[in-house]
Amino acid sequence: MPTRSGEHLADRLADQLRRAGAHEVRHAAGLDELADLVDAATRPVLVTGADLVAHTAVLRHLATSPVGPTVALVLTDPPGDGHTAVREERGQVVGAGPAQALDGGATGVFGGALRVGVGDLPSLAAAARAAAAGVVPVGAPSAAAPPPAGPAVDRLFAGLAGLGVLTFAQRVRLLVAHRVGDPAGLAAAEAAVAAVDEDRAELKLSVKERDDFFTTFFVSTWSPYVTKASAKLGLGPTAVTMISVAFAVAAAVLFGTGGRLALVAGAVLLYLGFVLDCVDGQLARYTRHFSAWGGWLDTMADRAKEYVVYAGLGYGATQAGFRYGWALAIAAITLQTVRHMTDTWYGVLHDEAARRPKAVGTAGGGIGDKLNAASNRVQADTGSVSYWLKRTVVFPIGERWALIAITVALFGPLVSLYAVLAWGVLAFAYTGALRTLRARWMRVPVLDTVDATLHRDDGPLARLLPALRPVGPLALAVVAALGPAALLVAALLTRDGAEVPRWAVPVALLVLLVAGLGAGATHAGPLDWLVPAALRAGEFLFAIAVGVVGDVPAWLIFGYVFVLTLHHYDLTARLEKRQSAPPLHGGTLGWDGRSVLLALAAIVGFAGIGMATLGTYLLVVFVGSVALAWVVLPARAARASVGLVGAGGRSPG
């Protein structure tokens, strides 16, 4: 069909794809020709039908979406003849086909465009050939229906979904995208596109669609102006992240300095630092500058900033005369890290459950079913009191920053630490109880879908221990954490009196090593997603207990735990970004190896020296691993790629 400018719609789409970042644009006469083109591709592939009318930004968002390698455009329009309906959960496409085949569960309609990652290109070629032949793709479930009749791009997408390719949904907000079938529909869609200011809409879209209460009403109302200014100044997301870190460090220093003026100034800097923490993500979405490095850095910087602030509060409370200021800071960093581990793995669990909807419904209802239904109702009631209460009670980062800033400005560091711990414990109890009930209902294993040894952070000793399969890895990890907990309680109770017996440290170590008996077991239980958090709790408690028993300065204990958190957040950040293990991961010794070294140092009477030495070593390994992963190895790979091209090899294109 000709557009208002006189060019054909397919030609305009081709031009838009180029402006959206496509390196090469081809018109495929049929699905067989498309399959041949895909076979030769070495980069992600964008596929569109010839009936899509949309802002160029819609295609650019699809091409640059960071949610996953394969992403499909999903619209809310009524499905046209032969169009593929879509059912999605948690942003993932879990069903695609004729609307009637989804039993009323359709949540949208395929928008006629998708981006397919390199790893999924063989499946795309297979789906194209099967759709061209009108057969079920090889590898699809035997019960899968043949590709439906309709536009080629819809048959292609239905076949790809039938092969089980993990596909994420790209929704259209504020911008315009429609599939058209006649000149009248084309004219209406073009008018709708022209009526929207594309740049202004993109700036609004840079703000998360759903965020927490404090961020929504006290940050996102004006942060887009900072985002726009940053883009005009040529600042990238990484630069804004670094400025945000500087603000947080300055706030921590002021909290440690004390004095009302310094505390108020620190609170203001903390708030501004959080605003910039939001701006870096908004800037990435506005400019479409996404990278694995940027995502990793944002995750690591968020945690480092928060824990540096805890250090400032702990030092400030101690300087103000409170003996256990550092102890509260250590408790805060331990609690928050264990909470984050449960958050990460519950998210993985929920995503896995969304990909396997049949497994979710096999429990026959019960309390888990009721909790899931209630949660979905609250989430759907956007803007209601219950919706905001649910988002606030879990104590997200915005609320933590706000609570710290307000309490430290009004009352001081000590009250701020108590407030963070109190709300954090309540939030942990609330989320832990509800998630445990829902996870038992879902019965979807997640640790057996990844390298469990890596995310358990097992060392050589744990790998050598026999597997105690009947007990289960979670029960072993929980029992293991009880030994260090008992040692810590005993050390705290006898701190001003008799010394803890020398044999208490090796006994607590032996109890901790019980967790290693679960290293070789299958992590397929409905609650085994809690194993990494339980192991982190056990290791942290043991390190703290050794520090207390060995009279290690509290600031040094905090520093050692802080280094451990960097290591563990590196692991979880790589899980979220689908990265491999850190290059020097083997050099970190595992939770078991580190605990044995600390115990030996405490037994010979050099707990402080041992903790400082081991912490410094781990920090050096972490920095070296970061340099290798993000600088050295990519540069080496780039040189190797250039060498292959110079030798006559094929350059990706």
From TrEMBL:
InterPro entries: CDP-OH_P_trans (IPR000462), CDP-OH_PTrfase_TM_dom (IPR043130), CDP_ALCOHOL_P_TRANSF_CS (IPR048254), DUF5941 (IPR045985). Keywords: Membrane, Transferase, Transmembrane, Transmembrane helix. The chain crosses the membrane at residues 233-255, 261-279, 401-430, 474-493, 500-520, 540-567, 588-609, 615-633. Pfam families: CDP-OH_P_transf (PF01066), DUF5941 (PF19365). Residues 457-639 form the DUF5941 domain. It comes from the Bacteria. Gene3D superfamilies: 1.20.120.1760. Belongs to the CDP-alcohol phosphatidyltransferase class-I family. This is DUF5941 domain-containing protein.
